[in-house]
Amino acid sequence: MEAAVVSSTEGVVHILLGKLGEFLSDKYVLLSGVRHEIQELKDDLESMNACLRDLAAAGDYHQTQQTRTWMKQVREVAYDAEDCIDSFRYHVGGDRYRDEDLAGWLRRTVLRPLTTLRAMYKLAVEVQSLKARALMVSERRLRYKLEPPAAASSSGDKTRAVLKLLDMVGDDDGSARRKVVSIVGFGGLGKTTLAAMVYKSPAVRGIQHRAFVTVTRSCNLRALLESLVEQLFAPMRDSRCSTKKTTTDHDEILRGIETKDIPQLLAHCSTHLRDKRYFVVVDDVWSLEDWASLKPAFPDNDIHSRVVITTRNRQVAESCCSLPVDRVYSMDVLQDDQSRKLFFNTVFRSNKCPAGYRRLETISGNILAKCGGLPLAIVSVGGMLAQAENKTPAEWMKVCDRLGSRLSTSAMMERMRRIMSLSYHDLLYHLKACFLYLSVFREGYEIKRGPLVRRWAAEGFVGGRRECTPEEAAGKYLDEFVGRSIVTPTRVVSNGVVRCCKVHDIMLEMMTEKCMEENFISLLGSPSKHGHQQHAMMVAAGHDKIRRLSVHGAHTSQGKQAGGVHDKHLCRRRIKKDEEQDDVLSSGDLSCVRSLLMLRCIEKPIPVISFAKLKLIRVLDLEGCRWLSNHDLEDICKLSLLRYLSLRDTGVQRLPRLIGRLKELLTLDIRETDVRALPETITRLGRLRHLLAGRYRYYTRSHRVKLFEPFEAVTIPPGLAAMGSLQTIAHANIASSSIAMGELGDLPGLTKLCVMNCEEGPSKWEPFVISLNKLSYSLRSLSILHWQYDNAGLEALLDLTSPPIFLEKFFLWGKLSTLPSWVSHLSNLVDLCLRENFLNGEVIIEQLGKLPSLLSLKLYRASYLGRELRFREKLFPRLKQLIVDNLPNIEELSFQGGAPQLERLTLAVLKKPEDGIFGIDKLPMLKEVEFYGHIMIDSVVAEMVAVCRNHPNKPRVYREDRPMEMDSESSN
After folding, report:
1. Do residues 787 and 882 both lie within one domain?
2. Distance between CA atoms of 830 and 822, rounded to whole angstroms?
3. 312 lies in the same domain as 216
4. Where in this chain does the record put each Disease resistance N-terminal domain (predicted)?
């Protein structure tokens, strides 16, 4: 892993060099007389960085302690130099918030010049000190002869496993009791993958309720139970949005779930499942205590319910299976033929070595021998080789040599870590910091693409290029991680883009330890795999400054609840954990923190973190921190270097006028909050690229069917023309922002826009349509929502003189006399969503069917009024996803040779189509049919199951994400 350590240090220096280059041209540098010293500091660091790159290229995994110490010194000099520059800019850079009073005038004309002089003097002193430190570090390298060393060297597949496990889960033993099946094996064998395949298998029949939860080493029981309750009680909502919320018993249970204690959550699950057949997967159970805490949620109701557990601990597996009907399934390493199939599938997307690469077969055998049949190791190495440009025996031999000796049972995990380290080492230097950054997320966390790439950009890990923005470049980095099998996709949309992913826990463990060791990231609140607090690791590494801080674990009231053995156990564990965390927050130096993430921390940490003291912070993510107060917001608005601010799901109701101070802000995320109007000072954020507000409502657990909440858009004040960097605006209220909507056309870089209007009449739309004509070349994603049944407003869309010709995503909600003609000419359109447009005539389907790039078509309620929905031959040549949602007049849904690439069909039907749904057999690529909605026509679902049973692909049929009963053949 030392190569990754090198990359961490190198990445820090690389970022600093770019900043020093920019800083040398600053007017204050010229005035303060330190230009020469900064240039010399830059020269010294460039020489050190060259040495670091040589170390990375050598790939030595056995560096001496002297080399590690020297790299640490280089890194700390670079960090301190960057802090010095940013601290100087904090005091003198940017235009301060202008108070229109005498005190404000005095601050600007008298006090600020004095502050600038003090800052310039301090800068000169600190640069002299940094220059001396850099010189000493450089001399140490020569004194101790720390040269880059030479590279070290050293001389039943899944399907059968699923079928065997299905036998255990089945009812062949004749007992109706709840059965627990434990899958046991060490990390990297694919236990989770196997459990997921069984969970999704249509061969598991007659299940009423399902859930898949992950325990993880830290076992946040509250978060786990909340996830379980949400999956079991997910309400079936009407697919039409209304002004009144549906109040069902399930809604009542889900409302305020974060305030309920653990006994209440356990009781909800147990009571709900008492008379229902259920199937629950509990993934990654680490201790007997964790299972004992969770077990009361699963009643033994004598109706063939099933619980599948995965664990690395044999004792845990056997203890969970305490009844005669329970079973333990032991996983072993792959056989040679299975290993070869997995390896070649990862590298070449083929079960065997292609003819053109036969000379690689021998060395492939050597590589696989060193992987020892471990799926995770095979995928890790295979993913790396798949991305290599030169697939030659010589290059593969180098990889084989670096893998070390064959895996033995005693050294299995250590060897696994080494293999994955090789994957990191193979990354280009600019990718390595992005990869190490993934350790900020807790184990099992589903990482969302959008926030991640925006954080990478704000951290400075990614630079923009002429052909793409920093966020687009960061997206390509994430795609490369997927291609190398470094991260595992969990949600993939129709065009193949990975929207969410996870990091394997073994990778995360090794990555986290190295991040701690190198002071790249510090974690609080969760124990490590070895049972020690993360802070203990950080202190042992000897770091006195925290640069990036991620607070893990939910500060909930669970430890304060009385009653029950489980709560007492959790209370003792929570008290110890909180005491150690409090020590860190009170004694640790947070003045150098540049990133702080406190995702889903329900209660405010004590002692309180003073946001006002985080003067060097760039990234602040407080998603889910509902304790956030107005005072906290005012302190946050004083952080003039802040580049990324997420207040998502915090319950914030308004933003202070001081928000205008955040001149460096690139992303402002206020989604899922109660903010409905932005202060006029928001227009002073001239560098802001992403303004995110509003919220979605989801109708399926897979989140494929979602809807904007029309009454929760945000009002934007006039003055948008001053925000020329904006790329994303979602979701803006047109009705109360007419002037601002007229200024949208002055934003040349706007690529994503979502606007809403809940008032009648065309007057509110006119300025928006004028702006839309000016954005024809920049927009890539456009959502327009008119929450009224009159078509007077949207009719202006029919006469656009310059429509957005490069659109890739288009969502249109509102009544129209006909579909705008320019829609049929959108050759780049990938995703089209229509709702309540009241369109009629099959000519509409003919027009849409000729769109050459369309991959996803969503026809929501009342979008189409025709009686027949026919997909004729040569129409929709690339369509992969189709959603048909409660179209009121549909009597026939037929596939007549069109949509030959369709993979996923999602349906919500209010009544059975009179002429039926047919032509499924003419969809050769179909993989999945999903039914959803508050009304289910059982006969329609049953007929679809029968049709899919005879389909060559055996596509799965889901009902609200639950597989329906089919022949066991369908799982083959």
Report:
1. no
2. 15
3. yes
4. 12-96
755 phi, psi to nearest 5 deg = -130, 150
* Angular region, 545: left φ>0, alpha ψ -120 to 50, beta rest: beta
We report the CATH number of the domain holding residue 178 as 3.40.50.300
Token duo for residue 40:
């010399």
* Residues 112 and 11 placed together within one structural domain of the fold: yes
SS3 256: coil
Q: Do 748 and 882 share a domain, yes or no?
A: no
Note whether 416 and 460 are same-domain residues.
no
Residues 308, 178 within the same domain = yes
Which H or E run contains 11? Answer: helix 2-23
The two three-digit tokens of residue 651, written as one number? 């319950």
703-738: b (≥16 Cβ within 10 Å) or e? ebbebbebebbbbbbeebeebeebbbbbbbbbbbbe
Compare 332 and 250 and report the one with higher pLDDT.
Answer: 332
Largest CA distance in the chain: 88
pLDDT band at 370 (very low <50, low <70, confident <90, very high): confident
Distance separating alpha carbons of residues 208 and 212, to the nearest angstrom: 14
d(CA 79, CA 56): 20
Residue at a domain's end among 805, 829, 853:
829
* Residue 812 included in any domain: yes
Q: How far is CA 893 from the centre of its chain?
A: 36
Would the pLDDT of 552 be above 90? no
Considering the domain boundaries, does residue 583 fall inside one? no
Contact by Cβ (8 Å): 219, 283: no
Query: How far is 785 from 733, CA to CA, in rounded Å?
Result: 10
* Per-residue pLDDT tens over the stretch 166-218: 777 776 666 778 889 998 887 767 788 788 888 877 667 677 788 888 887 66
User: Is 77 within the bounds of a domain?
Assistant: yes
State the Cα–Cα distance between residues 196 and 70, nearest whole angstrom: 46
Q: Which residue in 935, 889, 897, 888 sits closest to 918, CA to CA?
A: 897
Pair (309, 358) in one structural domain: no
Residues in the chain: 972
Residues pairing with 897 in the sheet: 872
Q: Report d(CA 126, CA 123) in Å as an integer.
A: 5
Residue range of the domain that includes 239: 158-330
Q: Give the long-range contacts of residues 361-368, CB within 8 A, separation 24 or more.
A: 362/393, 363/393, 363/396, 363/397, 363/400, 364/340, 364/396, 365/340, 366/400, 367/343, 367/396, 367/399, 367/400, 367/403, 368/336, 368/339, 368/340, 368/343
> Please, is 100 exposed, middle or buried when counting C-beta atoms within 10 Å of its C-beta (0-12, 13-18, 19+)?
exposed
pLDDT value of position 508: 83
Identity of the highest mean pLDDT range in 530-534, 664-668, 766-770:
664-668
H helices present in 235-326, as ranges: 249-254, 262-273, 288-294, 314-320
Summarised one tens digit per residue, pLDDT across range 798-811 is: 889 999 999 999 99
- Binned at pLDDT 50, 70 and 90, residue 35 comes out as low
Crossing angle (nearest 10°) for helices 35-58 and 65-92: 140
Q: What angle do CA 744, 745, 750 make, to 5 degrees?
A: 70
Domain match, 338 and 406 both: yes
- Which of 829, 859, 882 terminates a domain? The answer is 829
Contacts of residue 747, Cβ cutoff 8 Å, sequence gap at least 6: 720, 721, 723, 724, 726, 775, 778
Position 245 scores a pLDDT of 39
Question: What is the torsion angle, in degrees rounded to the nearest 10, for the CA atoms of residue 601, residue 474, residue 478 and residue 438?
Answer: -30
Residue 625 domain-assigned?
A: no
The answer to whether 494 touches 830, Cβ cutoff 8 Å, is yes
- Residues near 693 by Cβ (< 8 Å), separated by ≥ 6? 670, 671, 673, 675, 713, 714, 730, 731, 732
Number of domains in the chain: 6
